[in-house]
Design a protein that fits this description.
Layout: H1 15-23, H2 38-46, H3 52-61, H4 83-94, H5 107-114, E1 126-130, E2 139-141, E3 146-150, H6 172-190, E4 240-242, E5 245-248, H7 252-266, H8 273-289
Parallel strand pairs: 1-3
Antiparallel strand pairs: 2-3, 4-5
Helix pairs in contact: 1-3, 4-6, 6-7, 7-8
């Protein structure tokens, strides 16, 4: 995310988190500006709240295993006021992406792409909690094996829409999209592409240093040269580059905006409508702010909410 010019498994049994809780006894749990918004709480209640079997799977599959999470709530894994549980919520929202035809990409592709390990998209990495990488920095993906997640995507209460220099962009939809965005940097690295952002302001990008990308337009469900469509499972991991021109390609800000659009317009019924509205708001912010050549559309227009 902002200023990220540096490029930057098997599931475990239920006793894993319980063991961590025992080992972490006595650790003072306090990180960032902690607290849970009503939207965060509503989502926690919507998906199997405090299911330690499921949390074990997410903990391992998304590499939230570094000891940096000790003061960030790993010993209180069901407390959505703390960063660890907020990451679990963000992953669960990715798992709630739609599966219907006519979307940008399938749930399974977002799910596999955003995983830290056991994925065809990139080498194994892990997520690390960092309290401060600089003002407004939400996350950084370093060259190699990890992604840092910073306080601006966890701070309470946050604001309705992120804006340049805002240190409190705590929103569930943004946090999920940040995971999708950052893991795409690892995809770029794995496939030999330049993983840096451009500096702004530049062209139609109104963001600052290290926060501008190109947008490579494609319609939801668009046809690909191999006879498949972009909304079929596996199509996110494909490219169509001709003479150096990305006819079907994705930048990190683009994939997060497409994810937001899919969740906002086609999110399944169990996702609270307030979260779909968050996805629309933050997706439209990125579409209007982070692309040098402009995206040319906004979420909800011309496709309305169903």
């Amino acid at each position: 995310m902002k200023n990220s010019k540096r490029f930057v498994g098997n599931f475990v049994i239920a006793s894993a988190i319980a063991g961590i809780v025992l080992l972490a006894t006595g650790i003072v749990v306090h990180a960032c500006t902690d607290g849970a918004t009503a939207t965060e709480v509503s989502f926690t209640q919507a998906w199997q709240p405090c299911d330690l079997n499921l949390i074990d799977q997410l903990w391992q599959g998304w590499g939230v295993t570094d000891d940096s999470w000790n003061p960030a709530g790993i010993s209180d894994a069901c407390n959505e006021a703390l960063p660890f549980a907020k990451v679990m919520n963000a992953i669960a929202l990715i798992g709630g992406a739609p599966t219907v035809p006519g979307i940008f990409h399938q749930r399974g592709d977002y799910y596999l792409e955003s995983r830290a390990n056991q994925t065809p998209y990139h080498a194994d990495v892990y997520l690390r909690f960092i309290e401060n990488n600089g003002p407004g920095v939400e996350a950084l993906s370093e060259a190699g094996d990890h992604t840092d997640l910073d306080c601006p995507i966890f701070n309470y209460p946050g604001v309705a829409t992120p804006n340049p220099g805002n240190p409190n962009a705590e929103m569930l939809a943004e946090r999920s999209a940040v995971l999708v965005h950052e893991m795409w940097h690892h995809w770029q690295n794995a496939n030999g592409y330049d993983s840096s952002h451009m500096d702004g302001p530049r062209g139609s990008c109104h963001a600052g240093a290290g926060a501008c990308d190109w947008f490579y337009p494609h319609a939801p469900g668009s046809a690909l040269p191999d006879g498949t469509t972009s909304d079929q499972l596996g199509s996110l991991n494909k490219t169509n580059v001709v003479n150096g021109v990305g006819l079907y390609f994705h930048s990190p800000y683009q994939i997060m905006a497409e994810f937001e659009g899919d969740v906002a317009i086609y999110g399944p019924a169990f996702i609270p409508f307030a979260i779909r509205q968050e996805a629309q708001n933050v997706g439209n912010y990125h579409l209007s702010t982070n692309f040098v050549n402009g995206a040319g559309f906004t979420i909800g227009n011309p496709v309305p909410f169903p």
